[in-house]
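User: Good morning. I'm curious how phosphoenolpyruvate would be positioned relative to this chain. Could you predict the structure with it bound?
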Amino acid sequence: MEKLMIAGGYPLKGTVRISGAKNSAVALIPATILAESTVTIEGIPDISDVQILKGLLEEVGGSVEFKDGNMTVDPSSMISMPLPNGKVKKLRASYYLMGAMLGRFKKAVIGLPGGCHLGPRPIDQHIKGFEALGARVTNEQGAIYLRADELRGARIYLDVVSVGATINIMLAAVRAKGRTIIENAAKEPEIIDVATLLTNMGAKIKGAGTDVIRIDGVDELHGCQHTIIPDRIEAGTYLILGASVGEGLLIDNIIPQHLESLIAKLREMGAHIEAGDDQVFVGKSESLKAVDIKTLVYPGFPTDLQQPFTSLLTRAEGTSMVTDTIYGARFKHIDELRRMNANIKVEGRSAIINGQAQLQGAKVKASDLRAGAALVIAGLMAEGITEVTGLEHIDRGYSELVEKLQGLGATIWREALTKEEIEQIKNA
Ligand SMILES: CC(=O)N[C@H]1[C@@H](OP(=O)(O)OP(=O)(O)OC[C@H]2O[C@@H](n3ccc(=O)[nH]c3=O)[C@H](O)[C@@H]2O)O[C@H](CO)[C@@H](O)[C@@H]1O
Ligand SMILES: C=C(OP(=O)(O)O)C(=O)O
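Assistant: Good morning! Here's the predicted structure, ligand included:
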């Protein structure tokens, strides 16, 4: 077990290249199950969620190679092996195995998903969609059993705009007989990315990226080659870092349109941002003003950037309010930021941040992935040394974090935990 050591208070400068999108990769990899021959995806990030999904595809008989960001999956000898326990519980996105296996094999047994603890993460809309397509769905001892004699296209209205449900229903519907219409669909870029892969495999999908998606089912899907989109959340994390402690940061391999809500907020704070085609430059910010943000479905401000953005707001002049309408309990990073001298209080779904605090290095714990990113940013802003534990969360979503930050001039390294520290974590 390791911790991150950060010597804060020094400016960062230079270019950082963004990896492929975690939240696409975790859906694209299960989607390969639907093909009858080899699928290659370029630009897959080397993160633990990806390694776990690779293992799960192998468990069901797939042959998977993952080297230099290219993942090649031969799904031809896969079988519908039940996956009620083990690795599936380690990540949220294992729920995409439900849609993909149901689409290909018309049956699946998948344990209820894990992932970051952000409060309740229901999957009722996924299940409603599978049932509408003709599947019988039961929950038996913590695993979801799905069976269908055949899948038939249906009109499905999502009661809640959900990225997960939109993608999962799409995965099953591409192999249903006839037309499926998903109404009130989510519009996130990752949905378009998954639809592009499926289309490359021979699926017929129209409207991905809008709130009505039409899918005409096909009998067979074939292998193909696909390049993943850049990770807008990783890119946003570095943009926030650039505004906090940057003296000129160039973020490379980014789609600026995917981050309009963040860029608008950073500009409103007074940050200097220049957006190009696939690069964004963040200049040194002398003074920053407080702003309010509210997380919303895309193209609103992403919930996944709310926590890193909170760290930045601690140095803004004035009082800011952060409201998370997607995951109202996504505030576990706040206690840790307080340990670092931040002046923040939580009221219901909102955090109220009184700036300008000079953060101080401290021993803190990442409770989830983006809380980890928030603490790394805070550590780089703080005076003195910050020690961050809970790296297993950060490793789920940030490829080569230490190397990328070192490349920008940060003093950051990983260190083995002492026996006493391991004991303390076990007893906590
Ligand atoms: C809308 C949104 O910002 N979604 C983010 C959320 O997706 P994630 O897939 O976790 O969440 P969804 O988009 O599916 O859910 C959005 C909201 O709908 C609710 N819900 C969802 C499914 C369901 O069956 N029933 C239900 O009530 C959720 O509790 C949540 O409040 O986290 C992902 C990883 O952090 C991000 O990539 C997504 O961009
Ligand atoms: C919460 C996240 O991941 P997951 O939904 O996979 O837990 C995230 O990407 O911010």
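The CA atoms of residues 341 and 359 lie 5 Å apart. The domain at 2-19+230-427 is CATH 3.65.10.10 (UDP-n-acetylglucosamine1-carboxyvinyl-transferase; Chain).
Let me know if you'd like a different ligand tried.
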